Amino acid sequence: MKKYVELTRSEAEALYERVKIEYEEYKSLGLSLDLSRGKPNSGQLDIADGLLRMPIDKEIFYSDSGFDYRNYGLVDGIPEAKKLFGELYGIAPENIIVGGNSSLQLMYDALARAMMFGTCDSERPWCREEGLKWICVAPGYDRHFRITEEMGFELLTVRMTESGPNMDEVERLVRDPKVKGIWCVPKYSNPTGNTYSDETVRRLAAMECAAPDFRIMWDNAYAVHSFTEDDDRLADIFAYAREYGNENRILYFASTSKVTLPGSGVAIVAASDENLAEIKRHMGTQTIGFDKINQIRHVAFFKNADNVRRHMLFLGAAIKEKFDITLSYLDELRGTDIAEWTVPRGGYFISLDITLGTATSVYSKMKEAGVTLTQVGATYPYGKDPEDKNLRLAPTYPSNKDLRMACEILVCAIKLAALEAILDKHS
Amino acid sequence: MKKYVELTRSEAEALYERVKIEYEEYKSLGLSLDLSRGKPNSGQLDIADGLLRMPIDKEIFYSDSGFDYRNYGLVDGIPEAKKLFGELYGIAPENIIVGGNSSLQLMYDALARAMMFGTCDSERPWCREEGLKWICVAPGYDRHFRITEEMGFELLTVRMTESGPNMDEVERLVRDPKVKGIWCVPKYSNPTGNTYSDETVRRLAAMECAAPDFRIMWDNAYAVHSFTEDDDRLADIFAYAREYGNENRILYFASTSKVTLPGSGVAIVAASDENLAEIKRHMGTQTIGFDKINQIRHVAFFKNADNVRRHMLFLGAAIKEKFDITLSYLDELRGTDIAEWTVPRGGYFISLDITLGTATSVYSKMKEAGVTLTQVGATYPYGKDPEDKNLRLAPTYPSNKDLRMACEILVCAIKLAALEAILDKHS
User: Which of A72, A112, A117 sits opposite B262 (nearest CB)?
Assistant: First the structure.
């Protein structure tokens, strides 16, 4: 298809009339569809049903040491779960704390502790310092940004590139001692779907930070979320950090939220010995322990890391189907130069850039036609996309039928918004 | 039996020799027993086994509104659980947030939010104020004290009386605007086992606090933990607080940790509309939601509040057996005037006062004989009992046989310590 900006005025006018009619037809259908939610649908959840149907024998609640997992204790999690996740993520089990159902909570709590008490490398609690800043890679995950915004950090935006954050920019920013950390989703990133290159991971581990207590919030949320066996390879940031003597810099998070059940999975935080000692000390004041029954339930269900990987291939195939549908519709825009999008090999999202900077217009048109998209700007700090370009597509939740209809309308709305911009029409 | 202080020197010497021999015999047994842990034993946990064995039909994971509880969402908990706990605790369901497995975590998080952001009645975050103070009722719960100590509060001790905290003292202290709150376990209190009188509850709700953002941490941990049907009655603090216009003052906590399973129960926080709005706003940044499967599991298991109460009668009978054993041994000290103890009608602990102020000596003697007691001072702020008197006994965990042996040695150690003090002997 021809580039829209190269259309003659009359070609553009004619196309506009056709697309406008098409759009009005969609609108008249009175639909109510949702492409905004990065959550699995019920069919995908059924793949983990065995977890809930598993026969509960009392023996599984006793560890080798005779500890009754139904009771209080073990604030850092059960050894069997540490072993499973250690194997799965390639981390020493003793450097893992197995928590509750939410890795976001573990991240928030890690920063809350830094605010109230400081880290093991801090001179004082962060809340006693003025003008704190935090690096946000954008497009990125809105819930990350919200945590640091709420805690009073100034958010600094760094562009996501194909190989991860723009590292020249990151290395420049961390020379400021007020810059305390960075949010990273290093694999199948939210929403761009790309994986940080080895070089990026190495530079993050090696860079010289002016703040001695700088922290990389390494949210490996999609560590095992490849669609096929052709999995992206993410470098071991702990290995690099050890090499450069910066091991305390890394706080590593992951969960089974998008492996088993989003509401009832198991989350982990992994860190250096020094960090872990600090975390456990405060965590032991916060709680007597997380839900060990759910931890042993996961261990009994999966048994080992290979079975998790097998499980993820089933899940990946189910999710790939949704992505393929979405991408097949977007393909219709190829050559028009009015949109660009990522083609992830794993994860949960497609990042869609509206080339002419009319993302808000597309969002509104979709809303009017009954299709909810993720709020424009959600992928940027403070919810503001400076170029009004980025839309995050979440294809997993709708049924195939709904997804097809939503994508059809999306393509139409993108065309309409582009033609309006080109013809300088205001809807 | 005769009061020890009224023994003649030769009577005391003779008794000392007998008790000393008895104690050395216990020591020679090489025992390893534990009276320190306020946790149920496996037999008590078995009473809730139905929770884990419950058939898991997919229908239970769907709410009336069609919400799939396996998925993300509902940060404030599922409506069915709000209804159950509302009925059980006599609180409007809409004023309840149903959380994860730990009420301690909900308390810590409430104070962490106050530190970082302030409450809905604060002018600034608490961490921006200097010299904060907190009231601790003692003897009380060490984990409460530890939270406020760690967050930098100066801990002020108020004596527990039979009707609750010494309210004259509390009312005097809250005239200081630096005093931000008080820890309360209002029913079958830890470790004294008494329940606050109506008058105490009313005065707590009514008192004039200089700090506009004063908070009562109302940890109703033993709300339904009577041993028999003859349950203590605790006044409704929300009703009083509404009467006096101080509803924001109350943060109410409870959990099923000692109803179903300590590691895998369900905890709640209840509060005024204004407090709840503030809590939900920050909680929604911290997590996408707690474990809703475990919430619906509890609802499906209990169905209604009456069934929880029935369940607690089974559990209460099992726990009463342990208390009766312990008390029958302590009875041997009646009349000696060397020890005083509480006789709770519910809860988890017996509070034992060593009249002559030799609790540390008793603790050490027990340790030497292979019996672990709760650390002396644990029931006081900063872990320091100013009178060296109080010991917290936790009878639930040991087997009956172990409990009998531990109590036998305890009685012997109390006698020995008292006689040493009277005879001015140093062991």
Answer: A72
CA dist A251 to A132, A238, B285, Å? 19, 10, 19
**Which helix or strand (DSSP H or E) is residue B215 part of?**
strand B215-219
How many Å apart are CA A170 and CA A181, to the nearest integer? 10
User: How many Cα atoms sit within 13 Å of A205 on the Cβ side?
Assistant: 21
Check CB contact under 8 Å for B291 and A58.
Answer: no
What pLDDT is attached to residue B13? 97
For residues A263-285, give the mean pLDDT. Answer: 97
Instruction: Tell me which of A58 and A411 has the higher pLDDT.
Output: A411
In the predicted structure, residue A313 carries a pLDDT above the cut 60:
yes
Render pLDDT for A210-264 as a digit per residue (tens, 0 to 9). 999 999 999 999 999 999 999 999 999 999 999 999 999 999 999 999 999 998 9
Q: What is the pLDDT of residues B193-209, one digit of tens each?
A: 999 999 999 999 999 99
Q: What is the CA radius of gyration of chain B?
A: 23
Distance CA B272, CA B128 (A): 25
The chain A residue lying nearest B286, using CA atoms, is: A105
The minimal CB distance from B287 to the residues A52, A70, A105 is found for A105
Average pLDDT over residues A280-293: 97
Q: Is A52 on the interface with B (CB under 8 A)?
A: yes
Chain A residue numbers touching B72 (CB-CB < 8 A): 37, 39, 257, 262-263
Residues of chain A in contact with residue B109, where contact means CB-CB under 8 angstroms, are: 286
pLDDT for A63: 74
Q: Given CB atoms, is B39 within the 8 Å cutoff of chain A? A: yes
Distance, CA of A43 to CA of B103 (rounded, Å): 33
CB-hemisphere CA count at 13 Å for A47? 23
Structure tokens of B144? 């409460």
pTM (whole model) above 0.95: yes
CA distance A395 to B419: 77
Distance CA B174, CA B172 (A): 6
Confidence at residue A427, expressed as pLDDT on a 0 to 100 scale: 56
Query: Tokens for B204?
Result: 């707590």
Chain A contact for B127 (CB, 8 A cutoff): yes
What's the rounded mean pLDDT across residues A297-313? Answer: 96
The tokens 């290159």 sit on which residue?
A197
Contact B71 A40 (CB under 8 A): yes
Residue B60 in contact with partner chain A when CB distance is under 8 A: no
Burial of A318 (0-12, 13-18, 19+ CB in 10 A): middle
Q: What type of residue is A1?
A: M
- Which residues of chain A neighbour B298 with C-beta distances below 8 Å? none
Percent of chain A with pLDDT over 70: 99
Rounded CA-CA distance A70/A83 in Å is: 19
Mean pLDDT by 10 residues, chain B (427 residues): 92 97 97 93 90 75 80 95 98 98 98 98 97 98 98 98 98 98 98 98 98 98 97 98 98 97 96 98 97 94 96 96 98 96 97 96 98 96 97 96 98 98 82
Element housing A206 (H / E): helix A198-206
Number of CB pairs, chain A paired with chain B, less than 8 A apart: 157
Residue B226, token pair as written in the block: 């009577």
Residue A426, burial from CB neighbour count under 10 angstroms (0-12, 13-18, 19+): exposed
Pairing of strands A179-184, A133-138: parallel
User: Cβ separation of B68 and A42 shorter than 8 Å?
Assistant: yes
Surface of B (272-311) touching A: CB under 8 A: 282, 285-294
The yes-or-no verdict on residue A53 having pLDDT over 90 is: no
Q: Which of residues 182-221 of A touch B (CB under 8 A)?
A: none
CA of A53, closest CA in chain B: separation in Å?
6
- Verify whether the Cβ–Cβ distance B116 to A117 is below 8 Å: no
